[in-house]
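Hi V.,

You were right to ask for the full record rather than a summary. Here it is.
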Amino acid sequence: MLTGAEYLESLDDGRITIFEGQRVTDLPGHTVLGAAVHRVAAGYEWLAANAVDGQSPLAGVPTSPEELRAKVDVVHHAGMMAHVTYTSIMTLATAAGRIKDAAPGYIEPIQAFIEDAHRRDIRITQCITDAKGDRSRPPGKQDDPDQYVRVVDRQADGVVIRGAKLHITGASLGHELLTIPTKAMKAGEEDYAIACMVPVNAPGVKIINTTYAPRHADTRDFPVSGKDAAPEGFVIFDDVFVPRDRVFLDGEVSLAAMFAHSLGLWERLGGLSGMADQADMLVGLAQLVAESNGLAGEAHIKEKISEMIIHATVVRACLEACLTHAQIGPFGAAFPDELYTNAGKYTGAANYSLMVRHLHDIAGGAIVTAPSISDLESAEVGGLARKYMSGASGDGEYRTRLFHLIRDLTADAYGGWQAVTAIQAGGGLYAQRIVTRKHYDLDRARALARHAAGVEA
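Predicted structure:
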């Protein structure tokens, strides 16, 4: 297992990572990105403290519903990079089971990499969404053929890839980039049917970072983004050589979608898990701020909170159902039920903005106008600020902190990122509707309706 300190040292590997036009040579020490790096290191320390027989609890592929549930809890506590690493490993394990008959030659390198990743205790991010150029055109008919990542040269010992992948959370914070097709490919698009593993510091890899972490020295007014914001990577593959043993698909267009669908399942499980906890927190915030405002007994306030409670309960029920009904793949790996995972993720994402609207309506305008914590400490105006920020609780700082949490989580820069991510993470709402319909037992529903109508087929 790597220690937190060893993880920090591992980032000094010559990687090309850019922030606001400047190359970052010291990620742990960077004034904006450094906080996220140290959170990953803290995750390593947490995993080490919870080691099982000297092995990270992140290691290993679950083989039963009980083990899958335990893994979900582990990655939830170990942080974002542990989550995306686990998602990457399980994407490979799931894809291997789905392509084993059609392309058995890729199974050994996939399984070898999974074992190696556990041995090295590395962090992996997934690169799936391409630049896409003119989205009305398929990959092979773009004016610029590099708008989708493609193979530009095939050699005896490997391939050379070119293109870019967008929206890669934590790309600069990991060690490897799981690079897979973003969609199904057709005959003539063989060069775009490429799945492989690329080291972050491989020659030709360049990562442009953006982040919604606060730029303030005092982060007390940013209780969420000051701790949990992670940079988003715009990953460029500028003629990157990938050795053959790191290639998991090369030209088999009929299998390209298998990797995207496998990743979608695990991304949506992670999103569903996060949404379940977030929905409960939104309920708690709504109740606390209503009490602090002295309005918790108002009928319309109680009605909104009740709707938020129902939403939170349904989302968590889908999480419980997808884990309880987990299935076992061809190589013994457990994976969540597709129907409940997708239905739950869709429900959480489609209704997120309404839940936030209820919270804003309950809380009031001080969400965006409350004074800072440092204002409350001001010798000149602090006492007055506390006085006029006090509510039914009689504590001005208590109520102010509630408003800052609501603003940071739902109404500021990070809140905007959160709103978009709720919809787009794991694929947009349309993708979840497609998969839900695919796995729903429509024939049974039809049969029930026919029976009730007395029109048996």
